[in-house]
Amino acid sequence: MSNDATLPSKPAQPPSQSPSQTRSPQGPTADADGRPKGGISWFPLGYREAVQQWWTSVSARQAERNVLSFIPHLREADADSSPLQEMAKSDPFGQRVWRQSLVKLSGKDRALNEVSVERVGEKADDTLVMLHGYGAGLGFFYKNFEPLSRVPGWKLYALDMLGMGNSSRPTFKIHAKTPQEKITEAENWFIDALEEWRRIRNIEKFTLMGHSLGGYLAVSYALKYPGRLNKLILASPAGIPEDPYAVNADMPEPEESTMGNEFTQDQESIVNGKSDGGNINFVRATDKKAAAKANTTTPARRPIPGWVVWLWDANVSPFSIVRLAGPLGPRFVSGWTARRFNHLPSEEKQALHTYSYSLFRQKGSGEYVLPYLLAPGAHARSPLIRRIQEVGRQIITPATETTPAVRETGFPIVLMYGENDWMDVAGGFAAEEKIKQRIVQALIQGTPEEKRRESGSAKVLVVKKAGHHLYLDNPEEFNAFIQKELEETRKQGLKRKETS
After folding, report:
1. Which of 209, 374, 486, 500 is the least crowded, having the fewest Cβ atoms under 10 Å away?
2. What pLDDT does 31 receive?
3. Residues 421, 424, 469, 473: which is the catalytic one?
């Protein structure tokens, strides 16, 4: 699930079921139209339906294709299709096709699942790469592929991170001894695979967008592999704010967090504007520094039960429980999917529930990264607020006896949050401030050439009527924001080519 989190502590009581109600296989007690009625029980999928789904479940690959089938206009390019020109004549935004590939990497059992989208007959000068969140998969971006591929000159890639989604699932094991070395090794496990994929695809530079844990790892990638990004887009990124309990081994694990909202928030109430989250109150505050210090406008923090901390530190993932649940696994998963997708049409809810279960039940691998990078409650062991200002400032070419070092001179960084996000937007504004301070420092201390090439910027965007999964909660506004960013990036790239 795209939620850098673990299990909730206190299940709600299931609602009573009247004779006129039916139980939807993907969600809560429902009326004849499949709409939730009377609230959502904690595990809304019935026992019988859960066993039936476990017994007859489709493959993870087919479940992914079922979700992608909801994308309008785009057609799959395969050997059995009619010519591309005939396939996409009805596309009002130009002929576009998508392809699925399993890109093999070096080493044993290492491959990344990839879906690419391209505009037929047009040259793609720019590339957007999309990374999902913890335990999720590229299929969750199904409402973004079509709108984002409307922008001319771009090719889109969505990747399942190594050990997640439908990518291969090698054994995940950390060999480092010290806490910082463990963090570095855990980050490298993912970002080294991304860099190898980039080289295989022969992509020189690209725009990188990451959601949640994918956003955290996108920052790690930018710091380790400088000179590869044109822009960094962080959608509700995990791990920005600092928590003293999470970063100090001599202190106990964090005792409270906003993470519980991932399991208790009703997405339908969020997208209908009936939920009042802390982020929107922070955005409306006239003095954001005072609001952040007072901590009265941020998302609600709830105590983390001791048993959750124990499971987290023991590296028992929520997906381990899904696998151990056997025939009741689909019922367990329905506790998350029923809330997370209840704002979507019935067929899409069902497809996303099946897709989620198909991913969660697979062999454990990349999911075991969680306690190395994040403390209980999704607090970072190595907070991004300590290092995000150095993104775009790394040395590309070391100095020699005759030539000075070549250093990055910044690039745009966009931080996005939902107004009812359980990720704290205050962390985004704090990151924006640190990045801007670093830009000022670069303009003061840089060489004349570095000052001329300075391209750094930072901004925070808030998507209305959206929570942590802003790309799915309000795809119209989210896609409009990203389209604008892509257009600006392309315009700046063309300008650089003209002046170089």
Report:
1. 500
2. 38
3. 421
